[in-house]
């Protein structure tokens, strides 16, 4: 059986920048073959420059990528994506502005062949507080933030520096489980949002988003011992480590190949269909200056079996 | 120019200046005149048609909120608790226990030739079985080899057997979803709740979306149900209306023997500008019998499903508030654009918070784009209070209330969802009339049966299935109820100049009854036999409909 396709949910209220992020990720996708599912094609979600042809509800994009609108039937659209040949390597779902990403995430569990990678929730720095206090949708907006693995606080150029700090503080209080990343025009490196690249080749240097190395630090660990997967997942997800993303392939207690994914506080570990790795590998990403290499080494050592 | 004069025992015209008559003259599908024969003779030579001489005619009934799915469901086995008449006129007795429902499926299975074909039932309603849960073992008694399942009356749950679960790879442990309850063995019990959990099994059972949205056979069956219910105009509320479906509907409804005027509303999911333009384009393709060019939005979910948005203090049993199905800004933009383009919008607002929001958005939209006589309509609008009706009046909104709901779910509303007090104000027909809000009432078929006379009975008596009168004050008189299922519903569709009453110039659409609905005891209204309809001057007797 092929390994499950990672799925990234892109949620957030109207106007937060979901479509901008989708286009950004499509432009900076590297070699990834991505399938994008959008709620509707309405106000032209995909940059014209990225579209190669249109076949009914399916847009053919550059590099074998596709985009499909799902309307009220995300399940059917996902089944369609699973049937594509060749299979997409990554699926992005841009949810509707009133969707609860957590509910969409639960739904993914009903389709074999998919793996929820991350719930990204965008927030418009300028209007967030107002929407979160809205009489009708305030509760919904707060729930969206709370379910996020990563909150992408977008359009920070529209607020003053003095306004940004209390906003971040407010976010941490409203959504304590979520890690917050500030950005403008949803410009964040795909390594962080999608995956850290293939482990054998090491993390790819993004070509067109040069600030990846400026904003973030990456630590790559190699080791020979087997690992207590549950213990390692729990340690890496602990808030003080401040990790944004991690990916690993290693031998578990039983000596079998096992993969580990972490995004914010979400971890997923599962037996891997990869060939037995020569050496265990773990790649970790955190904001520049927040990567705690010594603690990561120690955590890994503590989980050795 | 051929003129036919229909003779009737009595004609209830709904035109107050000539409320009763004995003859109606028809030319080119339209009403030339209604009155005594000698008066009608002034229009020139005519043919007298006395087939309806012993019948009572009233304006063709208008179902302002139904779905073609009612026609689609009848290809599956009816498993509901209440008796229900199928498109062939056969009345299926209600299945009064889980065992009866299972037996009914087993009997249907014996008639299937294909050994692998799935078997599906619909209308299942275990609320009335002391809430004994149906589990997959119950349906394994029907078959262990082929997929078997039943969709509930609400449309929100499916029960299926082990073979159906196995067919989609779910007969395993480790499934983690609130819509898929697990048994003590860690395997799904076979109860699947909500569209996501249901969808894959629904496909295996042959209930996929395209089928349920109403394909060609479904449209024919739906129209036969309309004839049997005295309905000459019915809405399909609503569908994404892909081009292929529109082409099919245009062809089918143009058929010489197609007996119903269909009003399909375009379901707008998001993307207001694109949706409104598409509705405008569809309007250009409208024909007399397929009235395209209206928009439907959905603001929230259902009250019995706890997905409707309620104002404080929320659900009586403490369930968390429901869901928004569309963002307020998008709804507002849709309202403004539709006002600009002269397109009508009907909005599903079940809970009173959803109604409140729509009222607010309508105020904003009308301030931005003042529009006389827009007739935008709130659909269901089940929990609105008197103050909200006053705002509807001020904003020129119409309301189409779900009168049937009391009968089927009134006891649940009293006990569980909104509690005894608010249950009495649900579907407040009398308040709407007293406030001057234009009123229609509906079935939401297939959620409840397509039968406007029954809907009128519900509004008149407000009886629940257990016999409780739920909200005496909101009962309305028979004449008002009959108006709500004719002119009232026509008004919400801006068709009241063409249909809804029997008077010179309007379409020759009649509901043909064996007796006078104003003369029979009001409790008998729901059982009044419908002989058939006249639609566009064409006579359709229920007994002469094709059957299969």
Keywords:
heterodimer; A: 305 residues; alpha/beta; Rossmann fold; Hypothetical Protein Yjia, Chain: A,domain 2; 9-stranded mixed β-sheet; 5-stranded antiparallel β-sheet; 14 strands; globular; B: 548 residues; Diaminopimelate Epimerase, Chain A, domain 1; TIM Barrel; 2 domains; 8-stranded mixed β-sheet; 8-stranded parallel β-sheet
What would you say this structure looks like, in words?
The complex is a heterodimer of chains A (305) and B (548). Chain A is of the alpha/beta class. Chain A contains 10 helices and 14 strands. The longest helix of chain A has 14 residues, at 161-174. Chain B starts with a strand and ends in a 7-residue tail after the last strand. Chain B is globular and about 80 Å long. Chain B has 548 residues and is an alpha/beta fold. In chain B, helix 14 packs antiparallel against helix 15. Chain B folds into 2 domains: 77-206, Diaminopimelate Epimerase, Chain A, domain 1, CATH 3.10.310; 213-535, TIM Barrel (Alpha-Beta Barrel). In chain B, strands 1, 2, 3, 4, 5, 21, 22 and 23 form an 8-stranded mixed beta sheet that branches. An 8-stranded parallel beta sheet of chain B has the order 6-14-15-16-17-18-19-20. Chain B has a 5-stranded mixed beta sheet with strand order 7-10-11-12-13. Chains A and B meet through helix 2 of A and helix 6, helix 10 and helix 11 of B.
């Amino acid at each position: 059986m092929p390994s499950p396709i990672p799925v990234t949910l892109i949620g957030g209220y109207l106007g937060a920048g979901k479509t901008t992020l989708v286009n950004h990720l499509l432009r900076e996708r590297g070699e990834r073959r991505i399938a994008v599912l959008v709620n509707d094609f309405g106000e032209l979600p995909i940059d014209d420059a990225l579209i190669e042809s249109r076949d009914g509800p399916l847009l053919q994009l550059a590099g074998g990528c596709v985009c499909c609108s799902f309307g009220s039937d995300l399940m059917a659209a996902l089944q369609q994506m699973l049937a594509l040949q060749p299979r997409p390597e990554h699926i992005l779902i841009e949810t509707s502005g009133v969707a609860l990403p957590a509910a969409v995430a639960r739904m993914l569990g009903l389709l074999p062949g998919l793996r929820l990678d991350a719930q990204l929730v965008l927030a418009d720095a300028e209007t967030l507080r107002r929407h979160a206090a809205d009489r009708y949708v305030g509760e919904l907006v707060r729930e969206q933030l709370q379910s996020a693995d990563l909150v992408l606080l977008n359009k920070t150029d529209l607020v003053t520096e003095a306004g940004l700090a209390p906003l971040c503080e407010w976010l941490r209080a409203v959504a304590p489980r979520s890690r917050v990343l500030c950005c403008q025009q949803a410009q964040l490196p795909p390594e962080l949002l999608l995956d850290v690249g293939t482990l054998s080749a090491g993390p790819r240097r993004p070509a067109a988003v040069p600030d990846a190395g400026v904003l973030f630090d990456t630590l790559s660990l190699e080791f020979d011992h087997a690992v207590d997967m549950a213990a390692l997942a729990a340690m890496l997800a602990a808030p003080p480590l401040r990790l944004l993303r991690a990916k690993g392939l290693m031998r578990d207690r039983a000596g079998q190949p096992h993969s580990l994914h972490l995004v914010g506080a979400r971890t997923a570990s599962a037996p891997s269909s990869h060939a037995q790795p020569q050496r265990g590998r773990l790649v970790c990403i955190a904001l520049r200056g927040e990567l705690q290499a010594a603690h990561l080494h120690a955590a890994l050592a503590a989980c050795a079996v | 120019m051929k003129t036919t004069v229909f003779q009737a025992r009595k004609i209830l015209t709904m035109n107050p200046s000539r409320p009763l008559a004995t003859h109606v003259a028809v030319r080119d599908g339209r009403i030339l005149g209604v009155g005594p024969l000698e008066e009608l003779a002034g229009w020139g030579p005519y043919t007298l048609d006395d087939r309806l001489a012993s019948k009572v005619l009233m304006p063709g009934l208008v179902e302002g909120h139904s779905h073609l799915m009612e026609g689609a469901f009848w290809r599956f086995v009816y498993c509901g608790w209440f008796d229900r008449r199928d498109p062939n006129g056969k009345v299926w007795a209600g299945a009064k226990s889980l065992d009866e429902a299972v037996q009914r499926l087993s009997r249907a299975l014996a008639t299937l030739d294909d050994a692998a074909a799935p078997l599906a039932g619909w209308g299942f309603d275990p609320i009335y079985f002391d809430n004994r849960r149906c589990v997959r073992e119950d349906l394994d008694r029907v078959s262990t080899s082929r997929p078997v399942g039943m969709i509930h009356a609400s449309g929100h749950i499916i029960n299926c057997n082990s073979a159906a679960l196995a067919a989609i790879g779910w007969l395993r442990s480790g499934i983690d979803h609130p819509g898929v309850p697990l048994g003590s063995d860690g395997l799904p019990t076979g109860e699947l709740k909500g569209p996501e959990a249901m969808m894959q099994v629904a496909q295996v059972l042959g209930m996929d979306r395209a089928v349920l949205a109403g394909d060609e056979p479904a449209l024919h069956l739906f129209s036969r149900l309309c004839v049997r219910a005295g309905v000459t105009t019915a809405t399909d509320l609503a569908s994404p209306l892909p081009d292929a479906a529109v082409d099919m509907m245009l062809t089918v409804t143009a058929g010489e023997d197609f007996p119903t005027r269909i009003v399909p509303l375009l379901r707008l999911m998001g993307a207001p500008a694109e949706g409104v333009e598409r509705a405008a384009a569809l309007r250009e393709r409208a024909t007399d019998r397929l009235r395209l060019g209206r928009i439907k939005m959905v603001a929230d979910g259902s009250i019995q499903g706890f997905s409707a948005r309620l104002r404080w203090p929320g659900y009586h049993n403490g369930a968390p508030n429901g869901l928004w199905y569309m963002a307020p800004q998008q709804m507002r933009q849709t309202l403004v654009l539709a006002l600009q383009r002269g397109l009508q919008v009907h909005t599903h607002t079940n809970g009173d918070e959803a109604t409140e929001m729509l009222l607010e958005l309508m105020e904003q939209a009308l301030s931005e784009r003042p529009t006389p006589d827009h007739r935008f309509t709130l659909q269901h609008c089940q929990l609105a209070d008197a103050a909200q009706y006053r705002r509807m009046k001020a904003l020129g909104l119409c309301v189409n209330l779900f009168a049937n709901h009391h009968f089927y779910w009134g006891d649940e509303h009293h006990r569980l969802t909104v509690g005894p007090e608010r249950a009495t104000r649900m579907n407040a027909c009398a308040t709407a009339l007293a406030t001057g809000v234009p009123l229609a009432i509906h079935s939401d078929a297939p959620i409840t049966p397509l039968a406007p006379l029954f809907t009128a009975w519900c509004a008149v008596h407000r009886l629940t299935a257990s016999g409780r009168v739920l909200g005496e004050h909101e009962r309305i008189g028979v004449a008002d109820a009959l108006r709500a299922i004719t002119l009232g519903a026509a008004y919400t569709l801006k068709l009241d100049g063409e249909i809804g009453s029997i008077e010179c110039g309007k379409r020759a659409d009649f509901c043909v009854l064996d007796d006078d609905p104003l003369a029979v005891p009001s409790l008998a209204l729901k059982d009044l036999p419908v002989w058939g309809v006249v639609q566009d001057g064409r006579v359709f007797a229920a007994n002469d409909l094709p059957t299969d």
